[in-house]
Amino acid sequence: MTRVVLAPDSFKGTITAADAAVALAEGWASVDQGAEFVHRPMADGGEGTVAAFEAAVSGSRRMPVTVDGPAGVPVDTFWLLLPPTDDAPNGTAVVDLGSTSGIELLDELRPWDADTSGFGQAIAAALDHGVSRLVLGIGSSASTDGGTGMLAALGARFLDAEGVPVARGARGLAHIAAVGLGALRPAPEVRVLTDVTNPLTGPRGAAAVFGPQKGLVDEVDRARVDDDLVRLAALLELDAALPGAGAAGGTGGALVVWGGVLAPGAAEVAELIGLAAAIADADVVITGEGSYDGQSGDGKVPSFLASLAVDAGARAMLAAGRITADSDTSLFAASASLTDLAGSSAAALAEPAQWLRAAGAALARSAR
Fold first, then answer.
1. How far apart are CA 360 and CA 172, in angstroms?
2. Does residue 353 contact residue 324 with C-beta atoms inside 8 Å?
3. What confidence tens digit (pLDDT) does each residue in 310-355 have?
4. Which burial class, exposed, middle or buried, applies to 332 when counting CB atoms under 10 A from its CB (0-12, 13-18, 19+)?
5. In this structure, are residues 119 and 104 in contact, taking their beta carbons and an 8 Å threshold?
6. Residue 189 — left, alpha, or beta (φ > 0 → left; ψ -120 to 50 → alpha)?
7. pTM (global) more than 0.70
8. Potential cystine with 23: which of 36, 250, 338, 353 (Cβ 3.0-4.6 Å)?
9. Half-sphere exposure of 214 (CA within 13 A, CB side)
């Protein structure tokens, strides 16, 4: 009997990690009827992180909050309250940047004006509740504001040469002449889950690598924002080369300034859901995400799962919405692209569950 652990990330904007795992299992079972399945839907600090905690922690509770979204309009969302523990007697708050200041909340990109204020407002709501600890997932950001919106919502001030608060978003970065942190709220224990290791600035920094995803398509604009982030780092006394500081458009670095500790999101979630124990006696581990590309090796779920599987003596397999030419699939015994199976990306996006079932079946056939 084949023991198959299903641990995909969400396929951003199309299907949740839990539903992706179900579809993959159905596809595999159509070929290998005797297989045993263990579902461990994953996340890495981006979309699906709160859902992973909610599913894994009994007694967790959604706490509604309305925040300023990245489109400039209010967003009704929630943060997750985990029950008290010995090391967090007033409970732990899990706050997800994606649901407060995330790119999925935009109908159209706003590279200059989207910001992280909503994320900071949700964090402030959790602090008002009196939690002992924060776990912050910072994937899926809509902006490159260096985390200034988030810090401002927690009491920081970003002022121009006249002492006036600058505009929100990347637009205001060029005008920051002074930073005031005196009224910044004290930080409890803060664990920051991130899926990237990029520094704040430079050729692998927030603007250069992730700016195009957020609408900074012009190289001159990206260079301008990178220069602005260099100056911001100096004002905040932040090491711009710090790995992970460039996560979420620089929010990773801003959280370090506040007192947060950056942690690899996939590893943190895996520990919570007991993934290592599940994989210990697995024959096959199937993981995946919407787009497996050249960035997927930088702390994201598939590469992390592949390493765990190899260490446990299991075969790692990959199912992804698309697998780009610049990606490294050498850790996987087999891989399946939904786009290839469906014949086009549009078809794969329209019916992700159908093509995940097809991918599960294809992977099962490859294991024979």
1. 47
2. no
3. 999 999 999 999 999 888 888 899 999 999 999 999 999 999 999 9
4. buried
5. no
6. beta
7. yes
8. 353
9. 33
